[in-house]
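Anyone up for a design puzzle?
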């Protein structure tokens, strides 16, 4: 490789190193923004969403490492995309007011009534 090739690879290495360093410095701030977005998407009530966003931001701040904080926030965002708004109410199951009489599994002999238990 000639001198120009070495110089170009050195410049690219420095630029990529600076870009990675800058991106890792932005990771915690980006993680907090993603957590706020996911809380707003997950909860319809604005007060509840704000409260939950603060809880998620505190949780993210407790995680070690800059990249890990971003990964945790992306997990929150993935769950928010899967579950938008509050859960729907449980289905109502109709229960009859009077249950049917139990069936006696013993065979009935003609002419003789079944005994009551």
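Challenge accepted. My sequence:
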């Amino acid at each position: 490789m000639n001198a120009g090739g070495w110089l170009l690879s050195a410049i690219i290495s420095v630029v990529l190193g600076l870009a990675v360093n800058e991106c890792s410095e932005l990771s915690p701030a980006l993680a907090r923004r993603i957590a706020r977005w996911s809380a707003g998407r997950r909860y319809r009530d604005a007060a509840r969403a704000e409260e939950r966003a603060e809880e998620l931001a505190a949780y993210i701040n407790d995680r070690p490492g800059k990249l890990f904080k971003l990964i945790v926030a992306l997990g929150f965002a993935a769950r928010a995309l899967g579950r938008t708004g509050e859960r729907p109410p449980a289905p109502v199951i109709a229960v009859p007011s009077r249950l049917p009489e139990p069936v006696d599994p013993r065979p009935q002999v003609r002419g003789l009534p079944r005994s009551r238990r």
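A detail worth pointing out: The chain is about 65% helix and 0% strand.
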